[in-house]
Amino acid sequence: MRVSLRGCLNKMGNFRAFLNITLVFLVFELCLVCCDITDGNTEHLKREHSLTKPYQGVGAQWDFSGSTLVTSSYVRLTPDERSKQGSIWNIVPCYLKDWEMHVQFKVHGSGKKNLHGDGIAIWYTKERLHPGPVFGNQDQYLGLAIFLDTFRNDLHGMDRSFPYISAMVNNGSVSYDHGKDGRSSELGGCSAEIRNREHDTYLAIRYSKGRLTIMVDVDDRNEWKECIDIGGVRLPTGYFFGASAATGDLSDNHDIISMKLYQLMVEHTPEEENLDWTKIEPSVSLLKSPKDNIDDPTGNFRGTPLTGWKVFLLLLCALLGIVVCAVVGAVVFQKRQERNKRFY
Length: 344
Hints:
By secondary structure, this protein is an alpha+beta fold. The chain has helices at 2-34, 270-274, 309-340; strands spanning 62-66, 69-70, 75-78, 85-90, 99-108, 119-125, 142-149, 164-171, 188-191, 201-208, 211-217, 225-230, 233-234, 240-246, 253-263, 283-284. It has a domain at 45-283: Jelly Rolls (Sandwich).
């Protein structure tokens, strides 16, 4: 009887150790997945490419133009007035091969539903401080643009709701089609309620190993939601980060609260390391034409692979399943031990 009880206790002790190890492993895996979009570790923050309160870098590392107003709390690209354009640009070219930009912004104004415009654009381009017709910046640019479009121009494009966030890579030969809301040249996009929100709104742009990922956090949930994820994107180094906005017959306040650039620690092949990244031409290898990119009724881009929180949920379910099986096994084991006691 004593031998059986001691053996039972030893086995239960082993089970507790196993359960503790499983829980530690679960926490470790969750931490790894949560780091898919960088958690803002300051050791990877590139201050020379970042714009934060109280904006002391403006003038030394950032230039602004047009209607831009710099205060201690925000950078207002346009006021809530008609026919305004403004921009702010980093002076320092970026030579990082893999990076992630977090933008905190605010779009607000007195205009009622559908009576406001036009929106904000975030840029990574060869040239800077060139005012123009594309959300306050030049057309036929070289580089990447992320458009936060708040006004629908294409009255026939009713399959998507506005505001709408989209991405475009340009080699200098393509014009942005305002009449079609840039649909013919976009890489993908999603609808997002970004206007007149009472809480903070964020956009994350990640470029790593030829993959462009756009995430949004606009619902006050403190979590990223996938907007765009596409491979085959080629962007050179040595370009400039910036933001611009414009108003037309309709208007809004377009504010930038912060722009924080993080370096991603990624290994590259020797061939990639020896490549002159400044000579790369901006391009995208697509399996289908950008004009075929149509968002589904829920506002999410179709055909995106499992990334970010989708992987997180899959891992969470798998690991929880392991824990549940272990607990059930322990209960069965204990019942058998109690039944065997009757024979001692």
